[in-house]
Fold this protein.
Amino acid sequence: MRDLLHLAPLQSFTDFHFRNAFQAVLGDVNRFYAPYLKMAFDGSIKEGPKFDVLPQNNPFEKVVPQLMACSAAEFLIMANYLENIGYDEVNWNLGCPYPMVAKRDLGSGILNKPSKIISILDEVQKQTSIKIGIKMRMGYEDTSDILSILPALNNIDLSEIIIHARFGKQLYNGTCDLDRFGECIPLSKHQLIYNGDINSVADFRRLKKLFPSITQWMIGRGAISNPFIFEMIQDDSEELPDDFVIVFKEFLSLLLESYLHHSNNHGNILLKMCHYWEYFALNFQNGKKLNRIVKKSKSVSEYSNFIANLDSLI
């Protein structure tokens, strides 16, 4: 039986443009998670994330939307909205590490308050039947918080718990605490999914050997830098597919077309492509050169020409 592989929700990267282009030409992803919905200061849901999860913007496999909330009231506003537009599952973000978020008991900032987490979940589940999963770090100040959180969650009905094996204050620096993750496995009765620093097939093999009981894995930044990583893991191959240049060019073209279809601001779109190429470039020996070419593109047509000629540039 093959392990299940999931695409992580990364703000500004794994939006519906990326997910749709990915699903059109690439494969081997079992579930796609959308970046989190969040409340605005006026009590409404922020419009950008709402637009991202609209059914008409997600014509392929339905994604699992994520939300960020620090109270049952906020959670229910977003969960009810998602249920009303057709979703039957949400994922609660308990992992965002950024201080401006964490200081408001959002994301990983609430992980040192396990009683508050349980209270929110208890209240939410009294008022909605939508399935709830959690994506969490192992703590905010350090990784010890998770040792008390996981047993407390055993009495809550959850679809899954995705664990990014860092603590919040690390941001994305340092290494994952694999020893602590190993301690987590016997503490939870829920389906655990591992997340963190899967950037290659070799990384996956090493983690699979360390945690043979884990059968589901989430990949984020490693999938932005190499969109073929899911296929390579399932094929147990460290080599890119023979047709990767053809497929990658098609993916890049679809990604650009989607942004152009929804916006006339070519400057912002070019900037967006530059941000993607900070990751894409890592997958090529001459990635720095390719990245420079992208950054020097002065128009969408110039960037399109770059895509068309990519096979001659690598």
Q: What stands out?
A: The mean pLDDT is 96. The chain has 15 helices and eight strands. The longest helix spans residues 244-262.
